[in-house]
Every structure is written in structure tokens, then in C-alpha cells.
Specification:
By secondary structure, this protein is α+β, with helices and mostly antiparallel strands. The protein is about 50% helix and about 15% strand. α2 crosses α3, α5 crosses α6 and α6 runs parallel beside α9.
Length: about 220
Amino acid sequence: MSSFHLENSANYVSRDADRFLILLKTGGPQPTGKLAAAAGITGEAARQQLVKLAKEGLVAGVSEASGVGRPAQVWQLTPTGHGRFPDTHADLTVQLLQSIRMELGEEALDKLIAAREKETRKNYSDEMSGAEGLRDRVAQLAAIRSREGYMAEWQEDEEGFLLMENHCPICAAATICQGFCRAELQVFQEVLGPDAVVSRTEHIPAGARRCAYRIRKA
């Protein structure tokens, strides 16, 4: 995850600061101590870096209830901080989709999504052709999605598998056209095979921090 590229901005952000942004993007709100441990630096050094990021409007400290006693402070990305992770050609993509919808109608947009779904299914199926078993297919799917910029990771638990995507590089397009998300879910179901049942449990366009998919054995 540390190699994920962040968008350039007028304000320079150091490599250590980039690491904090990635940790908050992939792990959600976290206290200073946890971020310091993950980055391998002291708590004071982490605090100084987070304060600097807060002044630049990239992170914000918020109070979070922690049982009995005073609320604990945790750090989270601001909308500006989330914006440091690229949404590929967002403005142009939105304009093109709106133009297709207005000039050619909803049916033409559906055909465009269907064509993208068909191509994606073929590409994923080709790359996953050597994967044996559901566990290997989930791992391979996560690797493919990470290469495409989704910052994907997966884990196995007593219910099956959980595929998590901490970023959506087509979020702007998906927000104005839910067909992209429906098509992705269908592709996941098909490339993971008939022995898998896939359901989406978290959704970035719906306001969640990430997209997450529960994968159970059929």
C-alpha cells in the first residue's frame, strides 16, 4: 500500500506525511499512538506530523467515545485529504457520461456499461485462469483490483472472505451512474465462480469509507 501514488498539490507533503494519509485511507480513523506504531516513529513525531497535516486541511482530529472516561482523540481524513487519492479523469468522465445520457439516452449509457462489463470480465477471467480454489481466486481478484488503483485487500474469517477496497478511482462516474457498481458486482460473482456468493456490505458512493464485499461459499 505504501507505494500508492498520491496526487501532486501546491502544498508539499513529505513521504512520512503520505504514509499517514495512506494509513488513514486504508484503516479509517485512528489515534496518534496507533499511527506512530504503524509508521515506526515516536508518538511526539507522529503528533507533529498530524498537526502539520491538519493545518493543511488534509486531516482532522475528532473525539471518539471509548467506554468509561474521557473520549479519545482520533485522526481522520478530511474531504481534501480524500481528494489526494486520484479519481481517474473524474471531471472529464462525468462530462462524457452526462453528454451520453442527454444526447443519446439512457439506453446508450447502458450499452456502454455492458461493453465495459464484458471487457472487464474477460480480462479478469484471463488473469485468474490459473487460480485453484476460492481462496486463490479472492487473492488474485484483490491483486488485480489493487493494480487498478482500488487499494484492495482481503482477509479470511469464519464466514468466508472479505474483500475491501479502500479507494475508488472511478468514484465520480459511479456516483452519477450506479450501473458501474452493479456491473462490478456481477463481474465479481462470475469470475469468483459458482461456488461463491458475493454481496456488497459497504459502498463508497453511499457515504461509506470504503467498498467491502462479503464472499461466502455457496
